[in-house]
Amino acid sequence: MVLRDTQAGALPRCASMVKHIGNPIKRASALLVLACAVLVGCAPRIDTTPPSFPFAAGWQNSFPNQKQPIDAKQWWTGLKDPVLTALVEKALAESPDLTAAQLRAKAAWEETGAIQSLQTAEASAAARRSGGKQRSEDLAISSAINLQTVLDLGRAREAQALGAIARAGIAAGEESAARLLLIGEVSNSYLGLRAAQQQLELLRRAQQRQRAILRIAQDLLNEGEGTRIDTLRSQARLNALDTQRKDIEATIEREVLRLTLLTGSQPGALPPDLERRLRQREPQPRPRLAPDPVVPADLIRNRPDLLVAEARYNGARAALGSARAELYPSLVISGLIDARRITARNPLTDATETRRGSVVSLGPSLRLPELPTRATRASISAAAMRVEAEYQAWHAEVLKALFEVESSLLDYRKATEAEALSQRTVTLQSEAADLLLAALREGEATFGEMAAIQSDLIDLELTEVDKRLARARGFVDLHLRLGIGASR
Length: 488
Description:
This protein is an alpha+beta fold. The protein folds into three domains: about 1-40, no CATH class; about 55-115 and about 155-325 and about 375-480, Outer membrane efflux proteins (OEP) (Up-down Bundle), CATH 1.20.1600; about 120-150 and about 330-370. The chain contains ten helices and four strands; from the N terminus they run ααααββααααββαα. The protein has helices at about 10-20, 25-40, 80-95, 95-110, 155-220, 230-260, 270-280, 305-325, 375-440, 445-480, and strands spanning about 120-130, 135-150, 330-345, 350-365. A four-stranded antiparallel β-sheet has the order 1-2-3-4, with no helix packed on it. A hairpin with a 6-residue loop joins strand 3 and strand 4. Helix 5 (about 155-220) packs antiparallel against helix 10. The longest helix has about 70 residues, at about 375-440.
């Protein structure tokens, strides 16, 4: 906490000025004014400097050949998939969860304006009429203006305002977290859908190949050159592929339903054009981000958890300011202007009289602080400890964020390498399967070898889809860990 100390020599100058004032009343007034001035100088200022970590300037990932920075606000558009972009935009506009978080953030920000100002003005007006047969008729009209200003010697109002801003910051961080979570869920669900559709197509092709293998096995068995074992194994493999296909179809329906709900639509109420494009098989989205991007250190400040932790730290500092403000007096200067006009008619004489008048008052009101008792000191000490605790919590969140970002960078790099390796493996296996089929036709290979290599091929093709999905989800996870896209 930063405190503003009283300048050296201030009190001796004040004492010297009082020494030359002879009138006791003037001396008492001067002492009161000077005491207030000294207290204002000694009142603690609430430190609002944002926290920082000492390694911010030098931190970045250590992978070689760093060329491509990460700074895209709408990073999901980098996947070049218009359907995904449309889903994210619809979710951000219509998701009830995000709308609720936005309303809570707006409400918290509105509450910052509920802190009473140091200067206030109130106006009022009234009119009253009375009369009867045995009494006079009166008409009284009055208007008043009440002005008030507060000398916040302990900066209590400042602490209240900063506390309200901190609470609004927490709500804003929670809104950012809801926004980022929604983008991540939509992106990952969509990537899973496209991967499932690709695997479904691969399984259909594999079933066609397996049916051909089954027919060959049956023909060989009928010709006496094959065995019933080969036929049964071929039929079992075909049944297994059919089971996998049904599981994938269920996954597709589940992901479509999930995307429908995430975008704020009821089941079956997705816009027809969007649902048609969603169910139509498209290639898997592939990120174009290099496996070793540059990550500026300040980029992690976008993370909602760090925004919330920083807001909690600011709230603790504001609470400490409120606790310390109890040790200082508050001076209120208020003024009142009251104007009235009274019109009266005497029923006996039938004469009407009008009287006008006004009242003007101005004066101070001084609230003395509580004595620094043990309870007061304990309250201030506890508030100071909470400030330190919130700072340490923020620092822990920073370290956690750095670990998650570094881990995501590593995972993305490894996923990129695994995808490339899997792609080469499938290419090699496909070439081997073609060669083996040609050899089988020439009688230089066995039926069992062909069945085995075809079974391995579909497994490798499905694995390639999984690896491509892992890299795309690694791309999503990296941006989520950096907090990119959390702000509007």
